[in-house]
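Structural prep section.
Before we set up the soaks we want a predicted structure of the protein with flavin-adenine dinucleotide in place, mainly to decide which crystallisation condition to try first. Input record follows.
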Amino acid sequence: MPGNIWVVAEHWQGSPTDAAFEALALGRELADGLGVALEAVVLGSDTGGLAAALGAADRIVAVDHPALSDPIGDVAARTIAALAAERRPEVVLVPITNLGWDLIGLLPARIGCPMVNFVQDASVVDGRIEAASLVYGGKMSTRVAVPAGPAVLAVLPGTRPAEAGRITGPPPVDRVAMDVDPGLIEFCGYREPEAGDVDITRQDVLVAIGRGIGGQGNVELAEELAELLGGAVCGSRPVIDQGWLPMSRQVGKSGHQVKPKLYLALGVSGAPEHVEGMRDAELIIAVNSDPDAPIFRVAHYGVGADLLDVVPELIDRLEAAGKR
Ligand SMILES: Cc1cc2nc3c(=O)[nH]c(=O)nc-3n(C[C@H](O)[C@H](O)[C@H](O)COP(=O)(O)OP(=O)(O)OC[C@H]3O[C@@H](n4cnc5c(N)ncnc54)[C@H](O)[C@@H]3O)c2cc1C
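Run finished without errors. Recording the tokens verbatim:
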């Protein structure tokens, strides 16, 4: 008989996150497919108010302890591993989020079990869990037969709609009294995103830059173009990772979903994780020197050229048309 399905129901500032509801929706399907219970694992120092939102689960396994008041991956991993050693879940679903990252790295090692990372989907096939996961930075997708439990599945955002897991409860709560060692890591605080930066989800015109922009020195060119078009600059993940634009400007799976009237993609390859965040734009124009770049599959208009030729020309023409 397989063990139960666990979802680490992450919460932030008093409420479960969307990612927790998405994972609960997936967990519900797996639990029903295996004929076992879905349990939401809730860690914190005062989790009493969370149960009512977690009705997708059959039961809540809650640990309240002062050492769990801040989201420290190491403490959470040790706590969940101690619970798992006793209760032997089939799989532990952990949402891939800023909060979840540390836990994902540590939990399989603490439990001593396998992990499937970047899970896009999972289902029960012939009584076993199979997971579809992204590998090679998202360039390939694989199917993994998850070995008999326990195993950790790190679940990508958007695997299921949050609404599907947002069911009011409350399910019965199993409060576990545990001695939790606070460990050596201290949570120093949370910093809100810089105030005053542009909200790219509200822009009608976005000039998106990808790695093809070539370097920070060329970002100014895109900014000039965006200003002439009355919009803002956003970017793909490599652009953000290299610090050419702030995090608040990232479009895609792990960034923002945008829906502007015009999305001008400059030197963006069109990887699925990027396209997921911009495919609903009303008009997509792509400039890419590779005529086979995947971005041209979603673009309404495409320019197969060097952006460093096209953008100055566009700026000149907009200026000549009196746009400045
Ligand atoms: C779990 C996960 C989440 C992710 N989340 C995101 C996300 O939220 N957002 C995101 O963007 N990515 C995300 N990624 C990364 C994604 O898979 C791609 O690696 C990334 O989108 C590629 O960015 P890019 O198009 O800027 O760079 P590249 O793939 O390197 O493409 C650069 C493009 O520029 C073109 N180019 C080069 N020079 C020029 C020039 N002079 N003129 C014109 N064209 C030129 C090239 O032909 C190429 O097509 C994620 C990946 C994973 C695994």
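Observations: The chain has two domains: 5-175, 200-320.
Flagged for discussion at group meeting.
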